[in-house]
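Backbone shape codes
____________________
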Amino acid sequence: QVQLVESGGGLVQAGGSLRLSCVASGSTDSIGAIGWYRQAPGKRRQLVAGIMTLGTENYAPSVKGRFFVSRDNANNTVYLQMNSLKPEDTAVYYCNAPSGSRWYKASWGQGTQVTVSS
């Protein structure tokens, strides 16, 4: 059973940093493109960062210059380095593959909670 599992969230003060991990398991296939999403209470889930198979990155304007996505293909892991965190970054963060990928999670799961205190 293929799985993508997020970890690394926590409570941090404004200005601090966290690194999230998205680990793929259950197959030796490359995970390909991965997106990092977040959902704050009462708000819709939004894409904050993505990385393509060959490493091309893209970011939402709200996080550009503060968040950095990277991948370790050897370990089928994608990271989201979050710097200069702001209270408005507080949300549950998820990783997921595009809907056509075998790694796509139809059920997004619990994600990892990031809470930034002011």
